[in-house]
Design a protein that fits this description.
This protein is mainly beta. It has no helices and 20 strands. The strands form four sheets. It has a five-stranded antiparallel beta sheet, with no helix packed on it. A five-stranded mixed beta sheet has the order 3-10-9-5-6, with no helix packed on it. Strands 11, 12, 14, 15 and 18 form a five-stranded antiparallel beta sheet that branches.
Length: 330
């Protein structure tokens, strides 16, 4: 997958944006620190489907999400803050890599029995989605490693610059709930943490302009539409990528709490146009800055747009500003 690493601003093109002070490894709190509220599934239909605080959400999890009766969110730690959760543990083979050098990143996910997990429920065509991001949110890679027969995942990886990084594994074990586990990585060398880019409604990437329409409000479901154009003309022939016209990853600045959101509708459903707009419904757990990374495919190439978005304090009620298919945020 071709994922640009020079992302400097995309708005949770459909989910939420994580930002704030651009934190580096040691400037961020402990991995297991809970956040004040969960990043949860956005209820956009009459009955809310359960959704976990992390993961792709194409499977029922029975965990955190708005309740059908009240539309309020249950308390749960956002995804990606913990290396071990619900009996599953992420174990990278090595946590120190060399900047600018292609290497192989290998890891296992151990289950409650202590053995590497070999059975997964595919989510958006993949058994596992791997996200690698620098702690100051200046570099982002969305990857899909391969797994061997004994459960070890591997993928070629180049960390472009020195610094502190975090890896996220977004998956659903067979018969289990969706999870996102996180672990720190380091690339030795001199580096200067970069400030978080200021919020912007439009960003440029690979010759494309992507505009965010919508605002985030903590505790409420927000409708966000990302519109793609090129050379001043709307792009109306986006290509399906992993069963969707767009994928959004949001990271909260400071602790890098993780949220993966998918758009309303899907290719071939008879109602979803292939651009220029991609609509998402997202609920952010707290006020503050978020960094959003949108993946979309056009011209047989996957492009990534990065936004900084600020969420204002809200009423805490999870209400949708529209209708949808009830399976957007995880």
């Amino acid at each position: 997958m071709n994922t640009p690493t020079k992302l400097a601003g995309f708005a949770l093109g459909l989910a939420v944006a994580l930002g704030g002070a651009a934190g580096i490894g040691h400037a961020v709190g402990p991995i297991g620190d809970p956040a004040p509220a969960p990043m949860h599934h956005a209820a956009t239909s009459g009955t809310a489907r359960p959704g976990s605080a992390a993961g792709h959400g194409d499977h029922d999890t029975g965990e955190a999400g708005p309740t059908a009766a009240t539309g309020t969110a249950t308390e749960e730690t956002p995804g990606g803050l913990m290396v071990s959760q619900h009996g599953y543990t992420l174990e990278p083979t090595a946590r120190s890599l060399t900047a600018g050098t292609p290497q192989t990143l290998s890891f296992v996910v151990r289950g409650p029995d202590g053995k590497p997990v070999t059975g997964y429920t595919p989510t958006h065509e993949m058994d596992l989605h791997l996200i690698v991001v620098r702690r100051d949110l200046t570099d982002f890679q969305h990857l899909h490693p391969t797994r061997d027969a004994v459960g070890t995942w591997s993928i070629p990886l180049t960390l472009p610059t020195a610094g502190e990084y975090r890896m996220f594994t977004d998956f659903a074990p067979a018969g289990g709930q969706g999870l996102t586990l996180g672990a720190d990585l380091s690339a030795a060398g001199n580096f200067t943490p970069q400030p978080l880019p200021a919020p912007a409604a439009t960003v440029e990437t690979d010759g494309y302009s992507v505009t965010l329409d919508g605002t985030l409000e903590a505790g409420r479901t927000s409708k966000l539409t990302l519109t793609v154009s090129r050379d001043g003309k709307p792009v109306t022939d986006l290509q399906p990528y992993l069963a969707a016209y767009g994928h959004l990853v949001a990271l909260r600045s400071g602790d890098l709490a993780y949220l993966h959101v998918h758009p309303d509708g899907s290719p071939g459903d008879g109602r979803t146009a292939p651009g220029p707009g991609i609509t998402f419904y997202a609920t952010v757990p707290s006020a503050g800055d978020y960094r959003l990374f949108l993946d979309f495919k056009h011209g047989d190439t996957v492009h990534t747009a990065a936004f900084t978005a600020h969420a204002e304090a809200g009423s805490g009620r999870a209400e949708a500003d529209g209708t949808g298919d009830g399976d957007h945020q995880h």
